Write the structure tokens for this entry.
Amino acid sequence: MKILIVNGPNLNMLGAREKQIYGEQTLDEMNKEIAAFCNDNGMETAFYQSNIEGEIVSAIHGVRSVYGADAIVINAGAYTHYSHAIGDALACVKVPKAEVHISNVHARENFRHLSVLADNCNGVICGFGADSYKLACLAMKNILIKQAEK
Ligand code: DQA
């Protein structure tokens, strides 16, 4: 069981950007923590980050063919709030999907309260830092197990 973890724009700047919101960890450090957690919980991981909308669309399309993954956990950054292209890409791929955010977007500016991705995901987890990704991976695992039992 393999999970593709997709990070969008500005998440490559973790550790440097707005530390009071996003913490001290770099993306690489966070990814290592998530990979270790997933490994301990019987999941493989693949990680992808891009600042470019179309590249994120293509990574989503390749979830199976390129990454050989069974589910997607995506933090699309600000694209979450307005990228219908990424929303449509999520609708294209028939794997379980979770939208995640490091910060609690509902406690922040109004424009962050809207997600145009959420209706094409199984669920949304936000506000728990790196744990948002870990919780989402566990949720993906549970969905995949239930699907395999059918
Ligand atoms: C974010 C929240 C978004 O509103 C913001 O644009 C980001 C990061 C988060 O993880 O908290 O870039 O997705």
User: Anything to note?
Assistant: The pocket of DQA is lined by residues 10, 75, 77-78, 80, 101-103, 105, 112 (CB under 6 Å). The first helix runs from residue 19 to 22. The longest strand covers residues 2-7. The chain has five helices and five strands.
